[in-house]
Amino acid sequence: MRNHAGFGRRFICAAMASAFIFSAFGCSASKKGVKIGIVKIVEHASLDTIEASVIKRLEELGYSSENAEISALSAQGDPSNVASMMDKFIADGTDIVIAITTPVASVALNYAGQIPVIFSAVSNPIEAKLTSSLEKPDKNVTGTCDAVPVDRIIDLALETVPGAKKAGFIYNPGEASSAANIAAAKAYCDSKGISYAEQSVDSSAAIQQAAEALVTQCDFVFTPTDNTVAEGMSVLANVCIDAKIPCFVGADSMVKDGGLATVGIKYEDLGIETANMAKSVLDGKKIEDIPVKVFTDLSTYINIGTSEKIGIDFSDELLSGEKTVVFN
């Protein structure tokens, strides 16, 4: 777990034998008794960015180590660990839980009758059964949505790779949001007359072999906001760079980690809005009166270093655009 500047001493998650019991170390007692739990499914750049942004914003809103206990934990890629964390939060009298990603939020939903849940980085909240309505959440759960604009990313790929005939998809089908995004990508490719190949991975260790097979079958690669792939994004990026195959991704942080480009949201903004929602609930606002936040202000993210390595040229108009962010 990383330390974040300005926050002070942090809670550190420790697994203790098979029971997966968590302890807190080095934290001062809370003056006001406000306890906030944060759980992410695994540690990778996108989720680390959200977590850091949530904590920073909570501090700005008045929840610092001087007057609150914030316990930030990682499930280490295993959703079954989330239940133990939720049990511990409830036993400790935690006031609210921030659940980062669909797998975490899906487990946290089972506890929403006992503790309010604010999710973050959930692509399809209704499909994940976290709520029946985005406008009027009905399960004591609300949050921020990182819906992937699959059609715009595929369009960017087709503009970048003129004459592309075949897409390559790599993802973990066990992640519901990834499966839904790949289904959307397939449907959109069908509408454009683009064929596709796919490789599935169930762990980051499987990415190397899957990627090496995939790049021999396609003109470009697409992977959504898949936690398994994001954890090993540098591996996928290197395979694609070596093969001179453009890799389009679902998140800005995956571009930072070597992906070529994406269209999407800024994950820091996702964390800020998630923390704002948590503050509203702690101030007494009912979750049913806090609509799910779907971000519509999207930018194009480009890794210029990757583009140079694979010989892809982007137009000056795109690179200098007001809604374009370039990473070196």
The domain tally reads: 2
The chain-level mean pLDDT equals: 89
CATH architecture level-2 label of the largest domain: 3-Layer(aba) Sandwich
Over the alpha carbons, how many angstroms does the gyration radius reach? 20 Å
Give start-end ranges of low-pLDDT stretches.
1-31
Distance between the termini: 26 Å
Brief summary:
With 328 residues, the protein is of the alpha/beta class.
Polypeptide structure, described:
This protein has helices at 45-60, 80-91, 102-108, 150-160, 176-192, 207-214, 227-231, 233-243, 252-256, 267-282, 304-310, 316-319; strands spanning 34-40, 68-74, 96-100, 117-122, 141-145, 166-171, 195-200, 220-222, 247-248, 261-264, 293-294, 299-303, 324-327. It is an alpha/beta fold. The protein has 2 domains: 17-146 and 266-294, 3-Layer(aba) Sandwich (Rossmann fold), CATH 3.40.50; 150-264 and 298-327, Response regulator (Rossmann fold, 3-Layer(aba) Sandwich), CATH 3.40.50. The chain has a 6-stranded parallel β-sheet with strand order 2-1-3-4-5-11, with helices on both faces. A 4-stranded parallel β-sheet has the order 7-6-8-9, with helices on both faces. Helix 1 (45-60) crosses helix 10 (267-282) and helix 6 (207-214) packs parallel to helix 8 (233-243). The protein is elongated, with a radius of gyration of 20 Å. Mean pLDDT is 89; it is low at 1-31.
Topology:
Blueprint (H helix, E strand, L loop, with lengths): L33 E7 L4 H16 L7 E7 L5 H12 L4 E5 L1 H7 L8 E6 L18 E5 L4 H11 L5 E6 L4 H17 L2 E6 L6 H8 L5 E3 L4 H5 L1 H11 L3 E2 L3 H5 L4 E4 L2 H16 L10 E2 L4 E5 H7 L5 H4 L4 E4 L1
Parallel strand pairs: 1-2, 1-3, 3-4, 4-5, 5-11, 6-7, 6-8, 8-9, 12-13
Antiparallel strand pairs: 10-12
